[in-house]
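Support request, please re-run this one:
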Amino acid sequence: MVPLIKSGQDHMLEPATWETVEVGDIAYCKVKGNWYTHLVTAKNEKRGCQISNNSGYVNGWTKAVYGVVTEVIGGKYKRKKQKKNKMNVLVKTNYNWADEIDFPGWEIFEKEEFENIKKQIKEYWDNGGKKFNICVGTNEEIDFRNYDDCVGKYAVRSVTEITDEEAEVIKRVLGSGAGNVTLSCVIEHIEYQLEE
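Re-run finished. Output below.
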């Protein structure tokens, strides 16, 4: 986490959960059995917080967040005041199998989270990512061969900015997303490919 926190450097924590931390916060959390004081680089209603080091390496997703760093003793880092109105986006997707069956879906993301997901997908393909498939029925799969298959204009049909209040109403009534194949499914498959 250098230069934000040096190894062994004292820092102040306050209790927090995955719901209360924000992208850009330094969270005290557990990911895949390991304890970290690392950056929150994305949030997702289903998966919790994406935890990364300060160099951009993604450690994984977790809902096991127990605290947030408010200040590094003898350092420059101080937690920014929480923003009251985050910009949210309603992302509508439509993945297609063999030009025969459409699989429409939608999800709500914080705008910054959506941009981070697109960046992560681009990095996957730019770094020689392997083709992967998502099963949509008996012996039927949607092929993902490149960036456009994941988030191109035929996959992501629309991105609509919505307010916190609109996002909360939609989540309360319909949940944070729906569909057999969603952007969250795509990013989960990419993360699985990276772990192999």
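Helices lie at 111-126, 147-151, 164-174, 183-195. The two ends are 25 Å apart (CA to CA).
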